[in-house]
Amino acid sequence: VQLQASGGGLVQAGGSLRLSCAASERTFRNYVMGWFRQAPGKEREFVAVISRSGGGYYADSVKGRFTVSRDNAKLMAYLQMNSLKPEDTAVYYCAASQTIIYSEYANHVRYHYWGQGTQVTVSS
What pLDDT, on the 0 to 100 scale, is given for residue 66? Predict the structure, then answer.
């Protein structure tokens, strides 16, 4: 599957952005969709994931502020980001896996397909 992430930009602290991830395959519903981010000089970190059945799971740092969703008919996944903080600044990636299991959701190496990344910059 090919993934295309979009929706990043520059926003002030406290603002909101919605990231989108467009997938290329009709079997999209069979994929677990993850969101990761990477700030300069830091390792890629887990942000959120939505399971095949639509359940969302979040990193503690974004819980209560970010919401992940998906629209299988449109082959889209979304990451709604509210109450953004400067420390949320990073390149955000969407990722997909057909074979990942629950215990692996936060492990980026278990995702086989990646979008190109979209920059999110939060100014203080």
Answer: 98
